[in-house]
Amino acid sequence: MAVTIAMRGYRAVLGALIVASSALVFTAAGWAGLESLRGQRNLAQLEELSGQLLQRAELAIDYAVITLGDYTAPSNDLCNIEALRTLRQQTFVRGAIKDIAVLAPDGQLMCSTAPAQFDLLTSGSARLAEYESRNTSIVLQPSHTEGSGLFRVLWRIGETHSIAATLNIDMLMFDIFPAQLRDEALAEIRIGPGDVVARFGDEASTAPSQTARAFSAASDRYPVSVALATSQTSFRNWNPWPLGPVLAIGAIAGALIGLLVAQTVMRPPSPVEALRSAIRRGELVPYYQPVFDLVTLRIVGCEVLVRWRRRDGELVFPDRFIPIAEASGLIVPMTERLVEQALSEMAPLLVEHPEFKIAFNIDPSHLVQPGFLDTLDQIVAQAGSPNSRIVLELTERNAFPDMKQAVAVTSEARKRGYRISLDDTGAGHNGLGHIQDLKPDVIKIDKKFIDVAGTVEAADAIIEVLVNLGQRMGAVVVAEGIETEDQRATLSRAGVAHGQGYLISRPVPLATFRALINDLERLAKPAKNDPQMA
Ligand code: C2E
Ligand code: CA
Ligand code: CA
Questions:
Q1: Does residue 283 lie in a domain region?
Q2: Is residue 421 included in any domain, yes or no?
Q3: 94 lies in which domain range?
Q4: For ligand 1, is residue 325 a contact (CB within 6 Å)?
Q5: pLDDT (average), residues 366-375
Q6: Which of the listed residues 213, 240, 267 is the one where a domain comes to its end?
Q7: What φ, ψ does residue 347 adopt, rounded to 5°?
Q8: What is residue 418's three-state secondary structure?
Q9: What is the pTM of this model?
Q10: Are residues 367 and 512 in the same domain?
Q11: Which atom of ligand 1 is least distant from the CA of 503?
Q12: Which of 480, 465, 399 is nearest to 437 (CA)?
């Protein structure tokens, strides 16, 4: 009992451990997977942001080019006051454009809608760097002041002059980053290989040593490119998963999987598996039921009946596992170990009582297996007992799988010295056929006749027939299941020699069996001097 409770406790703890560790592992692995997914998603978003910023810059330049085109088309009188005024009004509404100017080939200002912007851009020196676009007559010129947002789109329209738009694209940047990144991110718009025209963000937190991610994109129409970078920390903290729900889902899914695993791992073994390991662990033990002389009450032998003594102390009776043993073939190793064990523990008793016989129940399917007798010989020889002390009980309750083979084996067994007993005689469907075929040395009358012996005439008649048959064939007749003194007396009168039954003893372990023999030895009276028993 205590062992069962301990086992249950152990299984419960093991199950809980499996479920908990699965929940833990699953949550951790799930979280790691989600985090790597988030990293990839964040990278893709940054790449998209740099594309968007580039597009904004290109659009601003496109507008400038279109505006310049409008200006050149109608007349050549570019520095006409009226034309400049109209233009100033137009550029005012066109977002990034701050000035339209006409320039001499050396870059000197000829006229402008907002001359102050010209000064701001050039900071005194009229010559600015020039970077050609795909359309080579359009040139981009960054201002001298890095990051001012100012640059010029210049269109060379003739030998004598060019027209140029001054743009401020600072405002293109301001909402480019999502709030979570804004504090530690940097965006730059560059013209040519490295002139930074506009800059948004914090250079320090995105310094190369700690830049988490940097992206750049370059235009194929204009010599303009953008670069984006974020710090390690802001990139790591960007777009976080909702921690609570994710952990809860991970833990629940993990626990469910753990439950499945625990169920599979801890599924109780099948009956066959359980029996197999019980045999291996030696949990199947022999019990002994005495066979006694119906007159003297002296014990003349015993029948070995198997019991399954579980580790928790429970004793399981053969009707619960013999059918499984027979169906699975485990009956063979079970019987072999049982014979080994019984003979080894009975060895001294067999020496002390030279007439004592020990009977084993042999399943018919086992009997007809090749090598059955050779293996039995080995086991018996190892125990040091002569074959003549061994009785093989074959039940007539079930049909023999191969009667011819059974007859051959039993006759060979007899030659080797074993005695053959026909168990449950009268309980089968073969009439007296088995007696005729197997020629047993012992005929055991089935308990159902003994139960009613002396009260049902037909039973008495059958007992009489079997006793006569036994005498004719030289077989000992044994009555099974004698429970009362009346039954013993009736059977004894009917000429039955030996008996078995609760009247003398139930099947018991060896120690009890030995004590019983000693007690009965003391009580036993010689047959002739016992008027009561005769
Ligand atoms: P069985 O060979 O006919 O064994 C006799 C059964 O009757 C035993 O039951 C025994 O305990 C029971 N018995 C004996 N005297 C009395 C009595 O006076 N009254 C009553 N009511 N019962 C009595 P057990 O030990 O439970 O065995 C049941 C059956 O299991 C056996 O019937 C036998 O067929 C099978 N069995 C037992 N041990 C083995 C074994 O080692 N090998 C094989 N193949 N079968 C076995
Ligand atoms: Ca038996
Ligand atoms: Ca029997």
A1: yes
A2: yes
A3: 1-267
A4: no
A5: 96
A6: 267
A7: -50, -50
A8: coil
A9: 0.63
A10: yes
A11: 18
A12: 399
